[in-house]
Amino acid sequence: MDVLEKILENNNIKPTAMRLLVLQFLLNRKVATSLTDVENYFAKSDRTTLFRTLKTFVEKGISHKIDDGTGITKYALCEDNCHCEIDTDLHLHFHCTKCNETVCITEYKIPPIHLPKDYTAENVNLVVKGICDKCNSK
Hints:
By secondary structure, this protein is of the alpha+beta class.
């Protein structure tokens, strides 16, 4: 069995041709990706199909959504053994204000946030904005 098919099947996702292509695309990217980026790469594909593919990946824990403050949702693959749980899997995101790229910095974890009684966290997002290493070295 192909590695990509195995990733999808391990996450209870039926491996369709488009899902395999989008997964390969995300694996090759080093930065978070918007729906428009995916759509531009797969120019002959249906936007709705691509959106549903990304949504399925998020729902099944293969990827996560990032709100980097640009108003455009970005998507990035999760690390192995990530369950996108607020208490254990949250990490820092960095948005470069020069090149407009957003990256996951998974080695920097967000510490647990203890909310008052009767508060329930549904999402936590920490984005640092500045100049990335590529732009700093130019």
